[in-house]
Amino acid sequence: MIRVLAPPAGRDWVALTSLPLPVEAANAWVTTPGSGAVVCFLGVVREHSEGRPGVRGLTYEAYEEEATRRLAEIADELRRRWPDVERVVLLHRVGDLALSEPSVAVVVSAPHRAEAFEAARFGIDTLKETVPIWKREHWAGGSEWAEHASPVRGVGQSTGAG
User: Is the pTM of this model over 0.85?
Assistant: First the structure.
């Protein structure tokens, strides 16, 4: 598990971490002289889920080796679909998270906003559908693995995004 989270030398920053997500650093890192648009999506822990009010926190677990490989595949596929994208960030937390903490960050820079928005949307939608990460919801009455999860599919398989 990554303990120190710093941007890489390349154009894609993908990682799982137990540390708080470095959102400001990710936004700064994707901003390049050629990027006229930066889109940042953050998924944060909320106080409810479908049919369950009173959520107090979440615990995320991942199949680390496979999850990291899939994150890199998403970045590759994103670049194939939107070749003008400058930089891509795909970061996901694991471990215990409190309400309002970011659990996932997808940040994309591109010369124009349309590509940046489309690529970021593809990034989060594909991450949710293809990366083996599971969440356990905690509430006053106990805890349980989240319902409404989708089966994990391959990155290259069809999706409504992009």
Answer: yes
